[in-house]
Amino acid sequence: ILNVEQSPQSLHVQEGDSTNFTCSFPSSNFYALHWYRWETAKSPEALFVMTLNGDEKKKGRISATLNTKEGYSYLYIKGSQPEDSATYLCAFTGTASKLTFGTGTRLQVTL
Amino acid sequence: DTEVTQTPKHLVMGMTNKKSLKCEQHMGHRAMYWYKQKAKKPPELMFVYSYEKLSINESVPSRFSPECPNSSLLNLHLHALQPEDSALYLCASSHRGSNQPQHFGDGTRLSIL
To answer: Which pLDDT does position B1 carry in this prediction?
Structure first.
């Protein structure tokens, strides 16, 4: 059973704050690490797919880093806005070519 | 708007009923997926289809029967479900390859009486 863990479980920040979450995953048989944003009553939306150790990706105010040797990825949100409120899921892909999701970080951004 | 369309959005059925969930995409994706998501838990993979052939079955009970009639459609046939099968069922599609992002539908909220 693959163990993909995310922390914190939930986070409450104020508008304008910057924040980050962690995803830890098995460092062996790594193939890719996905990040998804899931807003309430909507479908999960892909943010990033990362495959290389040391990879950094950015999309607007959101960025992510990847360390495959130690098995972790960070997601950063700069200047949080209320529309960033969502559950952020990471998902690990190993050689079995299937996604194993973490339990998610629920972010709430208030004015 | 999601590019993966799932119907119905909600379904209530008895344990003896037979029903089907449907999923459709027109993005030319050749990999399609069914996930099950229980409250406060992450999505769990059920089935993967690649080029219309079943490639992964995560030991799902036979009361769930997937079908991929063509490259755009994915069905999940339900029969004799149990109350614990009540969940959100998500469909996704992607280009083939583990480094490809998956595109999800809005899901079908299933309740078993």
So the answer is: 52
Distance from CA of B87 to the nearest CA of A (A): 14
Region class of B76: left (phi > 0), else alpha (psi between -120 and 50), else beta? beta
Q: Which of B29, B60, B99 to mutate to test the interface with A (most CBs of A within 10 A)?
A: B99
Which residues in chain B have their CB less than 8 angstroms from residue A87's CB?
none
The three-point CA angle B73-B3-B8 to 5° equals 60
Task: Identify the three-state secondary structure at position B85.
Answer: helix
The pLDDT profile of chain B, 113 residues, written as one tens digit per residue, is 569 999 999 999 999 899 999 999 999 999 999 999 999 899 999 999 999 999 999 999 999 999 999 999 999 999 999 999 999 999 999 998 888 999 999 999 999 99
Give one DSSP letter per residue of A59-110, joined into a string. ETTEEEEEETTTTEEEEEESS--GGG-EEEEEEEEETT--EEE---EEEEEE
Q: Give B48's contacts (C-beta < 8 A, 6+ positions apart).
A: A97, A98, B31, B32, B33, B54, B55, B56
Cβ atoms of A71 and A23 within 8 Å: the answer is no
Q: Are B58 and B113 in contact (CB under 8 A)?
A: no
Nearest CA in chain A to B33: A98
Q: How many Å apart are CA A88 and CA B41, to the nearest integer?
A: 13
A45 chain-B contacts, CB cut-off 8 A? 104
